[in-house]
């Protein structure tokens, strides 16, 4: 089974703006897979459809065998997402943010603490894990979001512009 399958996927926004025009692709095996293209090419639109935040105008898309339209609720439990515009809650520390994110996804408190500790360490945030997120740099805040996604152990993670705002060391971690 392919991890991601897309067949003739199109998205037309109000006013006739066509963001996707009959895209077909298949991504399999262990990633990462990178979708690259110029600004305005439809990368974010494609990702938003794949992580069930946006409905396509036509075509079909499957993630882990789940139809992104018909099985959106079930699929959301199996994937992790870091949208381009996301930011951690400013008054929560990275540790609190990741733990609460995991608990909201159904992890036990003990598992959330363990997974949070691991993910924050992997993302190089151990030294800032107890500072309010509003005091962190933009790159550190981005890494907090990636740590939250990583902590889920999801089979598929969608990261939109994951290197945006990161320094070279942060990019290497991602």
Topology, element by element:
Elements: E1 4-12, E2 18-27, H1 43-50, E3 58-63, E4 66-67, H2 72-76, E5 79-82, H3 94-104, H4 109-122, H5 138-151, E6 156-159, H6 168-173
Parallel strand pairs: 5-6
Antiparallel strand pairs: 1-2, 1-3, 3-4
Helix pairs in contact: 3-4, 3-5, 4-5
Descriptive notes:
The protein has 174 residues and is an alpha+beta fold. 33% of the residues lie in helices and 20% in strands. Strands 2-1-3-4 form a 4-stranded antiparallel sheet. The chain has a two-stranded parallel ribbon with strand order 5-6. Strand 1 and strand 2 form a beta hairpin.
Strand order of the largest sheet: 2-1-3-4
Shape designation: globular
Low-confidence stretches: none
Helix content: 25-40%
Order of helices and strands: EEHEEHEHHHEH
- pLDDT averaged residue by residue: 92
What is the distance, rounded to the nearest whole angstrom, between the alpha carbons of the first and last residues?
Answer: 26 Å
Beta strand count: 6
How many independent structural domains? 2
Radius of gyration, in angstroms, nearest whole number:
17 Å
- Discrete helix count: 6
Main sheet properties: 4 strands, antiparallel
Strand content: 15-25%
Structural class: alpha+beta
């Amino acid at each position: 089974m392919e991890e991601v399958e897309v067949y003739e996927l199109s998205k037309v926004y109000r006013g006739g703006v066509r963001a996707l025009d009959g895209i077909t692709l298949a991504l399999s095996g262990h990633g990462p897979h990178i979708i690259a293209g110029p600004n305005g090419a439809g990368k974010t639109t494609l990702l938003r459809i794949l992580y069930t935040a946006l409905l396509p105008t036509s075509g079909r898309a499957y993630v882990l065998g789940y139809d992104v339209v018909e099985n959106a609720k079930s699929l959301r439990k199996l994937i992790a997402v870091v949208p381009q515009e996301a930011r951690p809650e400013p008054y929560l520390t990275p540790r609190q943010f990741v733990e609460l994110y995991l608990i909201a996804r159904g992890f036990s408190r003990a598992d959330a603490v363990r997974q949070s500790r691991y993910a924050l360490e992997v993302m190089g945030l151990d030294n800032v894990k107890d500072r309010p997120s509003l005091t962190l740099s933009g790159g550190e805040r981005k890494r907090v979001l990636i740590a939250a996604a990583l902590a889920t152990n999801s089979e598929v993670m969608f990261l939109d512009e994951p290197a945006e705002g990161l320094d070279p060391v942060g990019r290497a971690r991602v």
